[in-house]
Amino acid sequence: KTHGADDAEYHHLLLLVTAAFMVLSQANHVVSFFVALEMATVGLYILVGFLRKSNASLEAGVKYLVAGGLSSALLLMGFVLLYGVAGMNQGVTDALSFDDIALALTANPNSVLGLVGAALVICGVAFKIGSFPFHSWIPDVYQGAP
To answer: Quick one: pLDDT at residue 51?
Structure first.
Protein backbone atom coordinates (compact mmCIF):
# COMPACT_ATOMS: atom_id res chain seq x y z
CA LYS A 1 0.00 0.00 0.00
CA THR A 2 1.44 3.36 -0.96
CA HIS A 3 1.11 6.51 1.11
CA GLY A 4 2.00 9.07 -1.54
CA ALA A 5 4.50 11.72 -0.49
CA ASP A 6 4.80 10.12 2.95
CA ASP A 7 6.40 6.92 1.63
CA ALA A 8 9.87 7.88 2.85
CA GLU A 9 8.61 8.75 6.34
CA TYR A 10 6.65 5.51 6.51
CA HIS A 11 9.65 3.38 5.57
CA HIS A 12 11.95 5.26 7.95
CA LEU A 13 9.53 4.54 10.78
CA LEU A 14 9.47 0.86 9.83
CA LEU A 15 13.27 0.81 9.97
CA LEU A 16 13.24 2.56 13.35
CA VAL A 17 10.83 0.02 14.80
CA THR A 18 12.83 -2.87 13.34
CA ALA A 19 16.09 -1.50 14.75
CA ALA A 20 14.46 -0.99 18.15
CA PHE A 21 13.25 -4.58 18.23
CA MET A 22 16.73 -5.77 17.24
CA VAL A 23 18.19 -3.86 20.20
CA LEU A 24 15.41 -5.20 22.43
CA SER A 25 16.26 -8.78 21.51
CA GLN A 26 19.84 -8.25 22.72
CA ALA A 27 19.00 -6.31 25.90
CA ASN A 28 20.49 -7.66 29.13
CA HIS A 29 19.99 -4.53 31.18
CA VAL A 30 16.79 -2.88 32.40
CA VAL A 31 17.64 0.49 30.86
CA SER A 32 18.47 -0.87 27.40
CA PHE A 33 15.35 -3.07 27.51
CA PHE A 34 13.06 -0.19 28.46
CA VAL A 35 14.58 2.34 26.04
CA ALA A 36 14.43 -0.10 23.12
CA LEU A 37 10.85 -1.09 23.95
CA GLU A 38 9.75 2.53 24.18
CA MET A 39 11.59 3.45 20.99
CA ALA A 40 9.71 0.69 19.20
CA THR A 41 6.33 1.63 20.65
CA VAL A 42 6.74 5.34 19.84
CA GLY A 43 7.40 4.38 16.24
CA LEU A 44 4.37 2.10 16.31
CA TYR A 45 2.17 4.89 17.75
CA ILE A 46 3.09 7.03 14.78
CA LEU A 47 2.58 4.19 12.31
CA VAL A 48 -0.87 3.36 13.70
CA GLY A 49 -2.00 6.97 13.39
CA PHE A 50 -0.15 7.47 10.12
CA LEU A 51 -3.18 8.22 7.95
CA ARG A 52 -3.84 11.70 9.29
CA LYS A 53 -6.94 12.21 7.16
CA SER A 54 -8.61 9.08 8.53
CA ASN A 55 -10.53 9.52 11.77
CA ALA A 56 -10.30 5.78 12.46
CA SER A 57 -6.52 5.86 12.17
CA LEU A 58 -6.21 8.87 14.48
CA GLU A 59 -8.56 7.30 17.02
CA ALA A 60 -6.59 4.07 16.92
CA GLY A 61 -3.35 5.99 17.43
CA VAL A 62 -4.72 7.79 20.49
CA LYS A 63 -6.09 4.56 21.99
CA TYR A 64 -2.76 2.85 21.42
CA LEU A 65 -0.94 5.79 22.99
CA VAL A 66 -3.12 5.64 26.12
CA ALA A 67 -2.79 1.85 26.42
CA GLY A 68 0.95 2.06 25.81
CA GLY A 69 1.35 4.78 28.42
CA LEU A 70 -0.45 2.69 31.02
CA SER A 71 1.61 -0.38 30.21
CA SER A 72 4.84 1.64 30.32
CA ALA A 73 3.91 2.95 33.76
CA LEU A 74 3.26 -0.59 35.03
CA LEU A 75 6.51 -1.83 33.53
CA LEU A 76 8.55 1.04 34.95
CA MET A 77 7.05 0.66 38.43
CA GLY A 78 7.83 -3.05 38.35
CA PHE A 79 11.43 -2.35 37.34
CA VAL A 80 11.75 0.19 40.17
CA LEU A 81 10.59 -2.40 42.71
CA LEU A 82 12.92 -5.04 41.27
CA TYR A 83 15.76 -2.52 41.42
CA GLY A 84 14.99 -2.00 45.09
CA VAL A 85 15.09 -5.74 45.76
CA ALA A 86 18.32 -6.21 43.80
CA GLY A 87 19.95 -3.19 45.42
CA MET A 88 19.33 -4.57 48.92
CA ASN A 89 21.06 -7.85 48.08
CA GLN A 90 24.67 -8.33 49.16
CA GLY A 91 27.20 -8.88 46.39
CA VAL A 92 25.20 -7.26 43.60
CA THR A 93 27.45 -5.28 41.29
CA ASP A 94 24.80 -3.85 38.95
CA ALA A 95 21.25 -3.81 40.33
CA LEU A 96 19.84 -3.00 36.88
CA SER A 97 21.26 -6.10 35.21
CA PHE A 98 18.79 -8.91 34.55
CA ASP A 99 21.33 -11.40 35.90
CA ASP A 100 21.67 -9.57 39.21
CA ILE A 101 17.90 -9.11 39.51
CA ALA A 102 17.47 -12.86 39.01
CA LEU A 103 20.20 -13.52 41.57
CA ALA A 104 18.49 -11.24 44.10
CA LEU A 105 15.10 -12.87 43.52
CA THR A 106 16.48 -16.38 43.95
CA ALA A 107 18.37 -15.33 47.09
CA ASN A 108 15.16 -13.97 48.62
CA PRO A 109 12.19 -15.69 46.92
CA ASN A 110 9.60 -14.58 49.50
CA SER A 111 10.27 -10.86 49.12
CA VAL A 112 6.96 -9.04 48.75
CA LEU A 113 8.64 -6.24 46.79
CA GLY A 114 10.17 -8.78 44.44
CA LEU A 115 6.87 -10.57 43.86
CA VAL A 116 4.94 -7.34 43.29
CA GLY A 117 7.69 -6.00 41.03
CA ALA A 118 7.78 -9.19 38.97
CA ALA A 119 3.97 -9.16 38.72
CA LEU A 120 3.99 -5.54 37.52
CA VAL A 121 6.66 -6.28 34.92
CA ILE A 122 4.70 -9.29 33.67
CA CYS A 123 1.48 -7.25 33.53
CA GLY A 124 3.23 -4.38 31.74
CA VAL A 125 4.73 -6.66 29.10
CA ALA A 126 1.45 -8.57 28.70
CA PHE A 127 -0.37 -5.25 28.23
CA LYS A 128 2.18 -4.14 25.62
CA ILE A 129 1.86 -7.33 23.57
CA GLY A 130 -1.92 -7.50 23.98
CA SER A 131 -2.01 -10.80 25.83
CA PHE A 132 -5.14 -12.02 27.63
CA PRO A 133 -6.62 -10.43 29.82
CA PHE A 134 -4.93 -7.16 28.80
CA HIS A 135 -6.11 -7.21 25.19
CA SER A 136 -9.15 -4.89 25.31
CA TRP A 137 -7.39 -2.20 23.26
CA ILE A 138 -6.36 -4.53 20.41
CA PRO A 139 -9.56 -4.64 18.26
CA ASP A 140 -9.92 -0.86 18.03
CA VAL A 141 -6.26 -0.33 17.21
CA TYR A 142 -6.17 -3.10 14.60
CA GLN A 143 -9.35 -1.82 12.96
CA GLY A 144 -8.05 1.73 12.62
CA ALA A 145 -4.44 0.99 11.73
CA PRO A 146 -3.46 1.45 8.07
So the answer is: 81
Q: What is the helix, strand, coil percentage profile of the chain, to 5?
A: 75, 0, 25
Domain that holds residue 97: 4-144
Residue 91: band (very low, low, confident or very high) from pLDDT cuts 50, 70, 90 = low
What's the number of CA atoms in the CB half-sphere (13 Å) around residue 21? 9
Q: What is the DSSP letter of 26?
A: T
**How many CB atoms sit inside 10 A of residue 20's CB?**
20
The total of other beta-carbon atoms located within 10 Å of residue 22's CB is: 11
DSSP type of residue 29: B
Q: Quote the CA–CA distance of 76 and 66 in Å, as a whole number.
A: 15
Per the document, the length of the chain is 146
Q: How many structural domains compose the chain? A: 1
